[in-house]
Amino acid sequence: MKPRITLITLGVDDLPRAVTFYRDGLGWSTQGIVGEQFEHGAVAFFDLDNGLRLALWPRASLAHDTGLPVGPHSSTEFALAHNVRSTEEVDAVMAQAKHAGAKITKPAEKTFWGGYAGYFQDPAGHLWEVAWNPDMLPPD
Q1: Is residue 84 in a domain?
Q2: Is residue 57 part of a domain?
Q3: Which domain holds residue 62?
């Protein structure tokens, strides 16, 4: 298997609220909720850099599709990271997320590994790290 990820799907309890957070709050582009005509089909897609896409899908639909029961929420199972080019950009993204309705779980600060980072949770509880890492700068 080639180490490639093309789609990240986040299960959410309130799809319209999640779309509002990412589209209106963070300014990410989407065509909105599609597939509502199908049972367990409502989903929203966001185009990210390098061909990666983010999907927001109701947790019950994801559970149905996988054959697994809906499990309890756990924000510490994984974290998504958004690397930026400066400490000022970390602060700006954290402020934007907070203004959009995110819960700041750890304000941005200098890190033990020589960078600067903070964490927030989206309205569904998914954990995001916003980081400036001098060894992992994103392209311009």
Answers
A1: yes
A2: yes
A3: 7-66
Interatomic CA distance for residues 93 and 97, integer angstroms: 6
Q: How many CA atoms lie within 13 A of 87 on its CB side?
A: 8
Rounded to whole angstroms, the Cα distance separating 111 from 108 reads: 9
Contacts of 45 (CB under 8 A, 6+ apart): 30, 31, 34, 53, 54, 55
pLDDT in tens, the chain (140 residues): 888 899 999 999 999 999 999 999 999 999 999 999 999 999 999 999 989 999 999 999 999 999 999 999 898 889 999 999 999 999 999 999 999 999 999 999 999 999 999 999 999 999 999 999 999 999 88
Residue 121 belongs to a domain with what CATH number?
3.10.180.10
